[in-house]
Fold each of these.
Amino acid sequence: MIARVVDQDGNAKRREREAIMTDDRYVPGLENVIASETNISYLDVEAEQIVLRGYDLIELARSVSYVEVAGLLLNGSLPDGKGRDLLEEQLSAASAIPDAIYDILAHVPAGTHRMDALRTAISALAGFDGELEDHSAEANGRKAIRLLAKVPGLVVNGHRILSGQPVIETRGDLSFAGNFLFMLTAKVPEPLEERIFDQSLIAYSEHELPNSTFAARVIASTMSDMYGAVAGAVSSLKGYLHGGANEAVMAMLGEAATPGELEAVMLGKLARKERIMGFGHRVYMRKPDPRALLMKEALARLAEAKGRQDLYEMCDAGEAVMKREKGLYPNLDYYAAPVYALLGIPVPLFTPVFLAARTAGLCAHVSEQHAGNRLFRPRVSYTGPRGLRLS
Ligand SMILES: CC(=O)SCCNC(=O)CCNC(=O)[C@H](O)C(C)(C)COP(=O)(O)OP(=O)(O)OC[C@H]1O[C@@H](n2cnc3c(N)ncnc32)[C@H](O)[C@@H]1OP(=O)(O)O
Ligand SMILES: O=C([O-])CC(=O)C(=O)O
């Protein structure tokens, strides 16, 4: 089918599109459909590489900090040492959260899912940003820093308020990752713990066009604001087919204590045609997720340091079961979950931590969408009736 584009205003771009051939094939889940142009990231599945603004994510995770990766995502280039220190300072300076946000969180039911609480908090924070409706690249860059700075506090203190605990203050003497882990565990982390947590934040920082990023871009494409777009992404990420899987992995691992028991749990689920959380991926599917390998390595180091090789061995055995039974590889969530458990992060905060890390990528996408916007408005393949009459 030729796209029917009416060229009433003589717009050259419209004429260009008129010439583009499309077909009317419906692709469920938009699998493999190219829905956006971006210079932020790309999953090069063949090369088994996640490209972030030209760099390999795994190489970044081995050599630089999350804050440097956030700078790369938001500004387009890796900051040097001075730039990194400046960004750390800016994030620390912007981390204070208005008391009114905590008051709102104090009024939501204690059982509220922590992603719902986080979405509420991000949504309410919009009203405090004086540049909310300025969608210029410069204003979006400043908003991204303000939001990224506050999300760790919203994640941790949202949970603490709902759990009846006092809020915990940020520690200006720690790095972004060190302070975040300190707040999550109420304990200054050991260097190995901080490094591994930092790597996990890089692993989660950005991943091309997953459901949540697509949701954020769709929202931003109406020229709605950054907070609204990120709040939409929170809803998307909560689902267990996406970010919610890291918590679901932990629930599954909690059902077993030995490799044999985990195998039995997995086989039981497969026999009942249930999905095994932390396995499979829309883009990688039959290839390894490079981030899962990174987190598996991190789990090995952490398990050794904490005398929990049993946990590593059980997870490794679970991976072998899925390879044998379904030919499926683990995704990032499968190994991030036990890493977070060993770091002492409360399970209900696993997915909120994912969102906190992804805030850098999401804000970069919102800015990019605003800068070169075209409204998302696809069509449907209608399957309902027609021609019904009222009488
Ligand atoms: C950081 C992230 O967000 S990564 C994703 C986190 N999510 C999870 O870990 C949840 C578990 N995984 C899944 O449910 C899926 O692999 C998804 C949602 C991630 C991707 O799913 P899709 O691209 O829609 O794959 P689809 O559903 O078509 O699956 C293809 C086949 O693999 C099977 N499959 C895929 N994942 C799994 C799984 N985790 N457990 C069991 N079988 C699976 C499907 O049953 C299907 O088998 P079939 O062809 O015999 O019917
Ligand atoms: O890419 C996806 O579909 C999901 C994912 O791994 C991520 O968002 O990190």
Amino acid sequence: MSSTPHPLDDARTQLAEAIQFLGFDDGMRRMLETARKEVTVAIPLRRDDGTMELHIGHRVQHNISRGPAKGGIRYSPNVDLNEVRALAMWMTWKCALLDLPYGGAKGGVQVDPLALSTRELERLTRRYTSELIPLIGPGKDIPAPDMGTDEQTMAWMMDTYSVAMGHTVLGTVTGKPVNLGGSQGRAAATSRGIVYTTLNAMESVGLKPSQTTAIVQGFGKVGRGAARFLHEAGVKVLAVADVYSTIRNDKGIDIPALEAFVDETGTVKGFPGADPIPPSELFAIPCDVVVPAAIEGVITEQTAPMIDAKLIVEGANGPTTPTADAILEDKGILVVPDILANAGGVIVSYFEWVQANQSYWWTENEVNERLRARMDRAWDEVTAFSRDHGLSLRTAATTMAVKRVAEAHVSRGLYP
Ligand SMILES: NC(=O)C1=CN([C@@H]2O[C@H](COP(=O)(O)OP(=O)(O)OC[C@H]3O[C@@H](n4cnc5c(N)ncnc54)[C@H](OP(=O)(O)O)[C@@H]3O)[C@@H](O)[C@H]2O)C=CC1
Ligand SMILES: O=C(O)CCC(=O)C(=O)O
């Protein structure tokens, strides 16, 4: 699907633009583009039928200048070390942009989680976590869910780490179940943040929710919530896609009905309230807002020319390649970058970590209000920087974040 060699190339291209603007020297460039620590582990898995499989897992800590490393864990057959490196780098910029006291990390296991039973997933997760124990912990590196993982995965990780420490350590991971030290509002936080930012971006281009149409790619933890909150805001969602199907209804999809259908069937495929279309037609649907909320590298030099929209709000990490960015800019389409648009998840992960470390829990309203305040502030800061310096929102956001990370690095002392 991607027309570029790899998301790591995209991440490095974006970093290079920020560094050029900031005028950093080659040493700083190398420091910022290179992960501080990378671990690759082999995870033997005994399947329920007694056979043995081996899965490869990674954890990459891209940067820790501003605080402990932070970022999700991905389970997918497509995971590879360079992808994890790119995702870890984007986490560093996201945390810095939102002024969270964290560096950036990401983890991944090359596995199809849908092909495993719950017991197999638990064994795999516990073994992967055991391998990471020297690396992770509330003051070192705090994992969270990403594609293919969820609250249950985080509960197993927290338990495995806690058993090894001899006591419960709730701040080990975030995105845990609420009954086990999770935060109110974390599950929906990424999607909520995307929609807060979408509404800000819509206002900036003069779109009113009741006159706005959208399409959403991905109907998992992020895409599904984004579709729901857009629908609740009055935006008409014309099409959604998961791996199995892309569906379209130009009158607007009834999102609550689609959610009920997906709860029963596990996919949008066959939903009676919309028509199936070829996946390749998704981005060609004329609409106001495109929300890619699945995987990297889907908006490319092939797909960008067909997009007929005013805004792209990146729910996924790295969905737009640098070449596509240039095409979209020429077409006058405003791209709200991932490190800004999908930061709601890590913001509420930060709130969860703070609550867990203090054993003092906030209400869902408190969480959502503080989330909104941080998302709105970041939107104002990035749009102002973009205007003041004539940069795209992506370059503005990356530049602001890279500058903060470099400043923290320098403040810690140049001659350690
Ligand atoms: N979870 C979080 O808190 C955060 C996630 N993100 C990013 O958001 C994106 C989605 O993550 P998340 O929702 O957590 O992951 P999930 O695993 O919960 O969901 C992924 C969704 O994407 C769909 N999908 C995968 N490949 C394709 C494809 N080629 N075409 C259409 N749909 C596809 C899946 O379909 P199916 O259901 O059929 O498998 C699923 O609906 C990722 O880029 C992730 O890094 C960013 C910030 C925070
Ligand atoms: O909640 C977190 O710590 C990280 C979420 C994540 O992986 C992301 O924002 O891409």
Amino acid sequence: MTLFVNALTQLDVSLWCPKRGLIGASWHIDAELDGELGEDGMLFDFGEVKPWIKSRLDAGADHTLLIPTRAPGITVHECNEGLCIRAQSPYPMEVRGPRQAFTLLPWSEITTERLGTHFSHELMRRPPARVSDIRLTLREENIDGEAYSYSHGLKRHTGNCQRIAHGHRSRLHIWKNGQRDAQLEAQWAKWLADRYLVDEEDLVADANDEVYGSLTTRYQAPQGRFFLRLPSERFAVLPSPTTIEHIATWLAAKIAHDIGHRIRVQAFEGINKGAIAEARP
Ligand SMILES: Nc1nc2c(c(=O)[nH]1)N=C([C@H](O)[C@H](O)COP(=O)(O)OP(=O)(O)OP(=O)(O)O)CN2
């Protein structure tokens, strides 16, 4: 017998891609479980399947930076913050933070297929009674219009959003003078694509940055100390923390100022939630 639960939970992560660099990603998680029925006629109570799988993913890869440790140019070593990870290609990155902020995977590239198999194996280490196999599938949200992706960290968040490099892939809706504007949505999704959104308060002066054309962000949060250096053009600098409320407000003000019209922005953070802001030129 096979039991399934579609869209059981979501994963919001960043990952290092040897072709695109730092990417924000959000995936639905679909689950299938094989096994034998118990006397109650069930394989595994839905009310227990969902919290079991969600809690395991939340405590593991969710809100971490996924690193393919066998990609060319990746190095990982211990440092005062916990782990220091450097990448070279397609551009240089250095990130440091507590061990729990990273998921290290011994692969040359991260794919949703490999992640699904990896998470399934992890869950099968201690399977529930009567479950003989588990298959997880990671699936991008089907977005008709524009999707934008970014990475960030919220130093004041008490949960895992404080981790300096986690991200999202999300819908972006923009209205100009009350009308949805597909062209503006495409333009801003393209501009935001794969950027790191940083609060200007968290940028620090670092001698390397002048030499290499990079920017460095560093902060202390409840889980530990975090550090990230990327080429300056990979950043978008906000005058505020990068909560979705501030992202929507900043985007609306920036677009209204740029084009001189009344703007409404509905910015999603991952799947099915976000913030709405309006601005006038
Ligand atoms: N009002 C806001 N709340 C939160 C924000 C925010 O910008 N505004 N941001 C975050 C984090 O950035 C986080 O990445 C979002 O995390 P998410 O996975 O969606 O939240 P949960 O883990 O609490 O939800 P699940 O249902 O467990 O996925 C957090 N809050």
